[in-house]
Write a structure and sequence with these properties.
With 512 residues, this protein is an alpha/beta fold. It has a domain of 92 residues. The chain is built from 19 helices and 17 strands. Strands 13-12-11-10-9-8-14-15-16-17 form a 10-stranded mixed beta sheet. Strands 2-3-4 form a 3-stranded antiparallel beta sheet, sandwiched between helices. A two-stranded antiparallel sheet has the order 1-7. β12, α11 and β13 form a beta-alpha-beta unit. The protein is globular and about 85 Å long. Bound molecules: iron/sulfur cluster (2 copies).
Length: 512
């Protein structure tokens, strides 16, 4: 295969007319002089700078867009360019080699032995019929909802299987919490299963991990079950889109609004368990055309002194016949934020809860040579070992999701056609070789695009959101050199406009 490589250094100009080099291999951003910037552009375009310098006869040189500079100064910056070249700038990145990593059965076993979260879809039943539901009319990539409930033997089998694996010496995450999550439908409709499994899981011996519990709920049954959840120190994620008007898409099956009922349950929880409410209760608000980032922020801030997580509607798996209505409902989070009267205050207060700040943060992490993903990486010399194509997480590295129909999946956010195994009455069918083969086949479909994509080492594109049906997915986020330069410039613009944000991310963003 011909070697595929891309230039590591991108000259980047910001709206403020500042000029930088951003080097992906060295992970450094360097503010630079306009002459140096001009020479770097010539170099990247493959022009012979030495030859050009010899043609300069006047004592001053016109640098397009930047003015006139003494010839000696131009020569000085040429020497600086050569110095930077010797220091490793302007090298090539061999993406053809880097993106050759493959999933192996052993790596899957190790990942599962260090699992961070197992989530059970306790039921596919729900009292609500939200307009934009991920299992509703807009989407076509989930199993039919049949009001099923998960039973205890199913959960028990999965917990025992995982307990055996995470207790092996392959576990190197000593004392790290292992989260047991409950999801639906509405998981509190199958509450006795939560009760039974919490009590059961606590009786099992977890050699390396501590157990934690988490539930995502629509809030309609909170009043009935809050004591149990407070007693077991659950993290509770309540779905609520803001005030009554903002929440208009979250309705009962008969179309009646759910807002008042949910609100009174949340208030009851706050009143009865104030400390627990403060520390362990979180809100997820979906952004759409009946609310805005500003309204959501003000509502949760004023009423509960909380910063909600704002979620955009999932744009993947949309049915063609619903696309028009979907896009009328959809609202872009960044646009909504910047349309706020006081967007800078909201940005400061919401901070890492905003997807835009999360994107800035991951740009910072992936473009800094002082950031390490974990302690293990701290001890390895090469921070950029081989990678998988795309930004897809390796199987089970984020979580294991068990559906009510017994499908074992990488997470709840992807189409249910991507099952990786099954839980059957006879046992768990999880063939690591087969999973590795499937991932490697999916990765091979996108590898070529990733090998010439400038964003390959900062990619967040999950492969399961691409159309894999005919084996030829086309990635809409592919970045050529020009797009990439704009992409970096956007982030540098952000830091120029928000100079305190860099320090704030370094100091406040928790590193797990
Ligand atoms: S959406 Fe994709 S990358 Fe994200 S957790 Fe799920 S499988 Fe992994
Ligand atoms: S953005 Fe698309 S093409 Fe680029 S690395 Fe990610 S998945 Fe590959």
């Amino acid at each position: 295969m011909a070697e595929i490589s891309t230039g590591a250094t991108a000259p980047v100009e910001t709206i403020g007319k500042n000029k930088y080099f951003y080097d992906r291999r060295l992970e450094k951003v360097v503010l630079c002089h306009p002459v140096l910037y001009f020479l770097a552009q010539m170099k990247i375009q493959g022009k012979d700078i030495a030859e050009w310098l010899e043609t300069l006869e006047d004592i001053t040189v016109e640098i397009p867009g930047s003015g006139t500079f003494p010839r000696d100064e131009v020569l000085y910056y040429y020497r600086k360019l050569l110095f930077l070249e010797d220091a490793g700038y302007f090298s090539e990145i061999s993406q053809g080699d880097i993106l050759n990593r493959e999933v192996t059965p052993d790596s899957i076993r190790k990942t599962l032995a260090n699992l961070m979260q197992v989530t059970f879809e306790l039921t596919d039943s729900c009292q609500m019929d939200c307009f934009y539901c991920g299992y509703g009319k807009f989407y076509g990539d989930y199993d039919k909802r049949e009001n099923k409930h998960m039973d205890f033997p199913m959960i028990k089998r999965m917990l025992e299987y995982l307990n055996d694996l995470v207790n092996t010496p392959l576990n190197r995450s000593h004392n790290r919490p292992l989260f047991i999550g409950y999801y639906g439908g509405e998981p509190l409709l199958n509450f006795h299963m939560i009760e039974e499994t919490v009590n059961y899981a606590k009786r099992l011996n977890w050699v390396h991990n501590t157990l934690r519990f988490t539930v995502t709920t629509n809030g309609l049954l909170l009043n009935k079950y809050m004591d149990f959840m407070a007693e077991h120190d659950f993290n509770i994620f309540i779905s609520l889109d803001g005030d009554e008007k903002n929440n208009a898409y979250r309705v009962f099956k008969n179309g009646n609004p759910t807002y008042e009922r949910v609100l009174s349950n949340v208030e009851a929880l706050q009143k009865k368990h104030p400390d627990f409410f403060k520390q362990r209760v979180f809100f997820n608000a979906v952004l759409h055309n009946k609310n805005s980032v500003e309204e959501i922020f003000n509502y949760f801030n004023d009423r509960f002194d909380k910063k909600p997580t704002i979620l955009s509607l999932n744009t993947n798996g949309i049915r063609e016949d619903q696309a028009d209505e979907f896009w009328r409902t959809y609202v872009n989070e960044e646009e909504s934020l910047y349309n706020s009267e006081d967007y800078s205050r909201i940005e400061q207060e919401m901070f890492i809860k905003l997807p835009s700040i999360q994107a800035v943060t991951s740009f910072m992490f992936s473009s800094s040579d002082f950031y390490y993903n974990d302690y293990n990486q701290f001890f390895t010399i090469d921070k950029a070992p081989e990678r998988f194509p795309s930004g897809t997480c390796p199987p089970f590295s984020k979580k294991l999701f068990l559906t009510v129909n017994g499908k074992i999946m990488a997470c709840e956010r992807i189409g249910q056609q991507f099952e990786l195994g099954r839980l059957t009455p006879e046992g768990i069918v999880l063939d690591f070789q087969e999973i590795a083969d499937r991932y490697n086949r999916w990765f091979s479909m996108i590898r070529k695009q990733c090998q010439s994509c400038y964003i390959f080492d900062q990619c967040t594109q999950c492969i399961f959101y691409l159309d894999l049906k005919d084996g030829k997915p086309v990635c809409g986020n592919f970045q050529n050199y020009a797009n990439y330069s704009r992409y970096v410039s956007n982030y540098l613009n952000f830091f120029e406009k928000n100079p305190g944000m860099f320090d704030r991310v370094v100091e406040e963003v928790m590193i797990d």
